[in-house]
Amino acid sequence: MTKKQQTANMGASGAQPAVTIPLESAERFFKTFERSAKRWEMIVYPGMVILVLFMAYGFYLIYNLTYDMRSMVARFDDPQITANLDRLSGDMAALSANIEKMTRQVQLMAKDTRAMAGSTAAMQKNTRDMTSLMASVKYMKSIDQELKRMNQSVYVMGSNMDRMRHDMTVMNRNVSKPFNMMNRFMPF
Fold this sequence. Notes:
Radius of gyration: 48 Å
Structural class: mainly alpha
Mean pLDDT: 81
Number of strands: 0
Shape: elongated
């Protein structure tokens, strides 16, 4: 290499020789780059169009949401709805108080029913004991009649307890239906 070629091959600082690329290689590189750029254009431009479409659709959704919220707020601004909601909240408080009272009464009834069940068991035991004594006192018709009345009373108590069970079932059905309806209005 001549001194002139060496100087031409030096970089700006003069420390490194400049890289020379043959013209054919550069041409091949640029053609390859151009094909690659065209491939990327086939991906990027449709992607940008899709992005713009998504953004327009998002704007449309947000616009509709704000419009719906505005119309919903306007409907709730009606004084009739406000009055009805106030009345409903008052009725709910009264309903809650009545339910608490009813719960206490049902608990007392359950307690009394347990006590009655214990008394009935004791009465059955006493009836069996009396039946065994009847063998020794078979000539006393009055005791026999009293025992029959007692048996009848136990039977009546049993049927009354069955009616009470039935009434509790009916009351449970009558109370649970409005509560199921009210559960749809409750947020919890």
